[in-house]
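Researcher: Let's try something more involved. This one mixes different molecule types, so please make sure each is placed in the same coordinate frame as the others.
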Amino acid sequence: MFELLGIPPQALFGQLLLGLINGSFYAILSLGLAVIFGLLNIINFTHGAQYMMGAFVAWMLLNYIGIGYWWALILAPVAVAITGIVIERTLLQRLYHLDHLYGLLLTFGLALIIQGLFRNYYGSSGLPYTIPPVLAGGFNLGFMFLPTYRGWVVVASILVCFATWFVIEKTRLGAYLRAATENPEMVNAFGINVPRLVTLTYGFGVGLAAFAGVLAAPIYSVNPNMGADIIIVVFAVVVIGGMGSILGAIVTGFGLGLVEGLTKVFYPEASATVIFIIMAIVLLIKPAGLFGRTA
Amino acid sequence: MTASTANLTHRTGLGDTAAGMSMLHRGIFIALLALLLVAPFQFYPVFLMKVLCFALFASAFNLLLGYGGLLSFGHAAYFGAASYISAHAAKVWGLTPELAILSGTAVAAVLGLVFGSLAIRRHGIYFAMVTLAFAQMVYFFALQAPFTGGEDGIQAVPRGDLFGIISLRPDINLYYLVLAIFFLGILAIYRIIHSPFGQVLKAIRDNEPRAISLGYAVNRYKLMVFTMSAALAGLAGATKAIVFQLASLTDVYWTMSGEVVLMTLLGGMGTVFGPMVGAFIVVTMQNYLAHMGDWVTVIQGVIFVVAVMMFRKGIVGVIGHWLKRSL
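Model: All components are placed in one shared frame. Result:
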């Protein structure tokens, strides 16, 4: 078969697919961060832990009560969102009048608690979660082999990202949300219950993280530490994209995943750091981020 | 964003403006020195050295957060990089310990200058995320670079002979070197805080737009304090590598960045003595609870949450509030 720049196409497309999958997770996670940041003005450090919780809830549903993947895809995000709502109601809500950095510190502490607890009960070696039978196997596309599940992950994340974009940009609820982001007092005065909107938004953002976690469960092993490292990369993604735009978060997420995949092909040593290097370049050239508004 | 940063550290009002050292502070410093001089006869010196290294690390971090109003979530980068360089210099290049520590510190300062110049282009939470991301980059570098020993780190670093003369193999000799480094570092930080430079820093922390309109080159001040803080964090990390004869990935991982935030928050941001108290408590806790494994992480998380929810001034901050003095 043909070769591209001395790279066999299977390797190239294989890594691109892997990049696209990582990009799907970056996109969903940074989307959740952006939605939460928009209304709450905090950076949710617990996001990585909540992604991990999503994977764990899916694993528990399967192993403790025998509920399979498809239900887990709905139930796990809802369950994790409920814990998020409890966190927002009991803790975060008391910090809104303070500097935003306290929100960061609080959610960091919560992430430590959650990760520590899961490590205590489940160890850090990781638990397997089998791919549901419908999505097992794959297709031979001629130039590469596409495992069905991986294709599904990409499709599912694009759907979820699009749905989120649609709700926020095109529906009445989204209009309230955007208005409350601009001026919460005014929206409150118009009779919209802004505190409830804030709580639900946090729950929704957390639910997105958990959804990504369920998607990730069959690909990566279910591990208490799975969220800790990815969340730092997602922070870099968010800095690169800027959190001003929903579409920006999605595009940056997928784009950087692909860049990471390409780096793995052409210069594997840099694949772990390439996103941070891009962040440094973006800070030099366009400090507000690619889609950001200058603060 | 900038104006609200003022709320982050409670304003230090009283006894904060004098150029010289206040009587109270002088008294505390002398008592502290006296205590630390005799401490190794009562306590295990290696434990004390660990406390001193982390107290210096937390104080360096507090210089940036408490007085500059800049929350770096990636100070492990400077601590860890210096630790690796110092270990490598002592082990592979065969430098004497003081030169090894100085090279570690110098590298941390350069790293701080580079990362700082990029990070100060963003504010608030973005600043925190940028510093965290850069620190993770240093972590991956330490994981992959040929000289860092990957997962093993650099082990069996020789303590060597100070100036080529005094052997540091006995714990007690090394202890007094660490004590000297700690005290010089702390006094340097104290001097920076109470210099005209430090006053401008506090002005920027409390109200950046006003400081700009007064004509201060705000970014230059931020970059300077960032570099100083990184260098002093590096001094602590480089010393730690000699003490434990080890540089490892733990030094440069994000959990380390979190720990130094915890120490400072618990002891009291924007206080001179708070970070030392916080470091003492956290290190002691880690020492005594080491057998509990991952519960230590949970406990640290709980302390974070409790400190943020109802104890934002920190221990020393609260005591200072009672005494109506800035400590």
